[in-house]
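Peptidase M28 domain-containing protein
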Amino acid sequence: MRGIGDPVSPGWPGVVGGEKLSLEDDRVARRFPKIPSLPLSLRNAEIILASLGGARAPVEWWNSGRVGSGQRVGPGQTVVNMTLQGELTMKKVRNVVATIRGSEEPDRYVILGNHRDAWTYGAVDPNSGTSALLDIGRRFSVLLKSGWRPRRTVLLCSWDAEEFGMIGSTEWVEENVLNLGASAVAYLNVDCAVQGSGFFAGATPQLDGLLLDALKLVQDPDDVALTVEETFKSQNNIIERLSRVDSDFSGFLHHAGIPSIDMYYGADYPVYHTAFDSYDWMIRNADPKKK
């Protein structure tokens, strides 16, 4: 789906009883792809590609690993029977937001967020991030019982329907955009918290110093003699800029202009958005020390 947020309420919150466009409206229809597609295993893709005739693939294609050397790109005589099951239906989306009221600046918000819906099992995406968010909530509860209170109000947010186009978080931002623009200090996003080794982060520039100062206080899980900040710098990692639109920080940053951070362990992982993103893959590959 093109764009983010509820397609029947583009630019305004899709709340119960609110204005909605019809599914036939061009502004809604153009959000959805018109060419059906299905993911294939590498083996099945190779069988189909091997049946093609026509011109050979450009040399830069197979040099980049996209197709085999000398592979043809069609047309061919093979007929592929593709069965695509899908439905267009309206569903209710539910966000869960826990509030810890600040003691000195209760009208200023520090927001931590993660989505809880997954393509399949979602051990990395989003359950590793959800685990981190829930453990932060547990630790806050211990502090609260001891009499601690944060200076500013802390919001812990579990977003729904992220995989459908950042719908839960975007609609919440659209509903609260005026208040957020005046009161939000920062949005901290943890989606795929653990997908491998090595710390990576993206942020808006005004939060770079804060992030690095925090990393100095955290012991590196792979080398107890070092801090995360020391290994982060030794690996020549840099804090990226959040120009992409692929997680729940998007509504906060691109719509409301709120300073944001997205952080995670592991540069990338090969089972992204597949049925292999499972607990078994997590304990064998992404995080084998944390069984």
